[in-house]
Amino acid sequence: MRNAVFALSSLLIVGTVSSADDWDLTAPTGLKFGLIKGYENWHVVATHYRTDKNELRYIIGNDKAVEAYRKGMKKFPEGAILVKIGYSLKKNPAFPKSVEPDVLQRVEYMIKDSKRFKESAGWGFARFVRDPKTGKYKVFGKSAKDYAQCFACHKLVEKKDFVFTDYVRRK
Ligand code: HEC
């Protein structure tokens, strides 16, 4: 696991660079891509592999989110942000039994802002989909309605403050 975490930190730096105007994209929920500028250097919380989508995901958090995890807080504080980055997979050319991230497909996040997002228990959602050919991002969804599904599904984990991911131990 230690190696995996180490490999991940270099991968995040190479894999998630986006051009200046991508940061101006705004999701229908009013959340800008630029709000998470710098996330390339945030902490890794855990990885997930979605068997139905064949996608590898990294969940990373800002300081506030990670501190809450480490303290075992039941609720995330205001300003906590969790980002999910999804990649397609490929075999490592030198060692095909090892699969690794290939193409970065999207970046999405949730932020705790209770004043702004009262109706979804304080969480605001945003998703940005990357075109692998151009490397440019597009906003997911046309209206706030398209984002109702985010909170609806995250309700499955209402008891964990609507967050699926647990912090994985490193040692
Ligand atoms: C059908 C269920 C479902 C929907 C819809 C959904 N999510 Fe999630 N989300 C998950 C699951 C399951 C995880 C755990 C990680 C994984 O498997 O990818 C997750 C994880 C996340 C995380 C990391 C924090 C956490 O809860 O673990 C973020 C950020 C996130 N989703 C954002 C979004 C956004 C933004 C949308 C809407 C555009 C959305 N999700 C819609 C199921 C869903």
Give the number of domains: 1
Q: In percent, how helical is the residue content?
A: 10-25%
Tell me, what is the CATH class? Answer: Alpha Beta
Low-confidence stretches: none
Tell me the CATH topology.
Chalcone isomerase
Spatial strand sequence of the major β-sheet: 1-2-3-4-5-6
- What is the H-and-E element order? HEEHEEEEH
Structural class of the helices, strands and pairings? alpha+beta
Kindly report the average pLDDT value.
Answer: 92
Q: Number of helical segments?
A: 3
The unique ligands bound to this protein are:
heme C
Oligomer: single chain
Q: Proportion of β residues?
A: 25-35%
* CATH architecture classification name: 3-Layer(bba) Sandwich
Anisotropy-based shape: globular
Most strands sheet: 6 strands, antiparallel
What distance separates the N and C termini?
9 Å
Radius of gyration: 16 Å
Descriptive account of the structure:
There is one protein chain. The protein has a six-stranded antiparallel β-sheet with strand order 1-2-3-4-5-6. It is globular and about 50 Å long. 17% of the residues lie in helices and 33% in strands. The chain contains three helices and six strands. The chain is an alpha+beta fold and 171 residues long. The chain has a single domain (2-160), classed as 3-Layer(bba) Sandwich (Chalcone isomerase). The mean pLDDT is 92. Bound molecules: heme C. Heme C (HEC) binds next to strand 1, strand 2, strand 3, strand 4 and strand 5.
